[in-house]
Amino acid sequence: MENQATKAEFRAKLLELAKEVSTSPGVYIMKDTGGLPLYVGKAKNLKNRLVTYFQIGPHESPRTEMMVLNVEKFEVILTETEPEALILECNLIKKFKPKFNVRLKDDKAYPYLKIAVGEAFPRIEWTRRAPKDGARYFGPFPSAGAARQVMQLLNETLRLRDCSDNTFRHRSRPCILFQMDRCTAPCVGRISAADYRDSIQQAVSILEGHGEKFIQSLRKGMEDAASREEFEEAAFYRDQLRNLEVVTSTQVVDEAGTERNRDVIGIARKGADAHGAILQIRKGLLESVRHYHLQNTDPTLPDHELLFEFLAQHYLALTKKEGDEASIPKDVLLPSVPDDPDLLERMMGFSIRVPETPSEEQLIQVARVNAESALEQNLKKVAGHSARALEEVQRKLHLQKLPQRIECFDISNNHGQDAVASQVVFIDGAPDKNLYRRYKIKTVEGSNDFAMMKEVLGRRFSHKDEPLPDLVVVDGGKGQLSQATSILEELSVQGVGVVGLAKARVKRDFKSAEVESSMERIFIPNRKNPVSLLPHTEAYKLLTHVRDEAHRFAIAYHRQLRSKTLLQK
Fold it and tell me: Over 90: is that where the pLDDT of 46 sits?
């Protein structure tokens, strides 16, 4: 209560300071106790804007309220005009990278597929550059994996060569891919240049979006696999279809004859993650697709405000950096009207429009498809586990509910010295590092992992204000599991699943020529034999990821303490 009263008093002081600020346009910088910028904003009237932050009562946006609670002081920079304030705001965001600002991360190196159509026996190549050298370029793809998947699919289906030019020139006999019927061996003349070119033209046609029969065969493969309940195979076909959709959708962007220079914006959002894609159309033809990841996005931020941040940061940086009028479009097509469009048009020198015709709606759809696919790929890199993995864990471990919040604990020590423990938290299958905790063992002397685990779990679950996990994973076998279940019973914690995850065990026999290894073993309360998971399953990948992350975090803290101990000696 005293802490809340102190915060309220300090907020009132900041409010009084805000009332003394000038009513001029300018930029304000919110700073924390260490003087680091938390947020940079612009305002037409600085006084009015700052007063709204520190008025009594919580903000509608939890993110804004959290930012205000951490503000120690603020600074203001006056400008002559609001456009000047916008330029200064973007420069300061780029300089300080504040924690609570939406920041643009330019993903310039998205991959393409290249086909040097002028060569006699071209191959499909993976590249991150698309110069004007006479070759055909398809993309960009949302990830390197997506590009390689499509390349492999076309190579295997059409039996195209995938060897380097140097290898191709110096081969005297077919390689193993020819024997496997996955290549036509043009390197040694097993196929004519005309027939090989027909195969390459099929690949070009598919990448242009004209491979209807090919697409139908993939879709049929997906449906057949799903009907057989072979979901991993069905997911493989689904990913192939989606990757092809991304690259082929851009091929329909053609406004030839219009001589129009325009950009088309697509935005995709999921929770606190957002991604923007820009189709750059020059002289009526699609020239490139640019991708931008929007960092620190507030889920409660309206779309029109997010669009404003995106446009301001992108085009102001473009004008300043490139200084080339040809790189600036004449008009920008948006899915919806952004915040303060008049200011943006005055600053950027182009018109802002929303779709008015079916063809413009199609352009927005293409941009959206590219943004959604790139966002999905980015989330996969961060998370790596789907809802299906959670469902599989629930089914295999006989849990009462879906394990949306998983906590894992691990112990690390050197014969009892510098003993520490880690707690990692996965939310919806993804690690949430803001919730990670580390513990220094206080009550246990010597090397007693069981007692250490009991201490750590006791400290964790004695905090009643922390939300309970759906599943607790302890690194170890029956002993560690027994400690975990007993401490939860002592603290009357109910509705939480507990399992012990033991590493694979090597079966040694010096008389045998082979060394056998058991699978990862999962121990469940009131069950004698452990549950074994096959390595290719989603449940296995998720649980071992959780365990390995806890182990990594514990080891890092242990090494940190051990280094300090050695320095003090």
Answer: yes
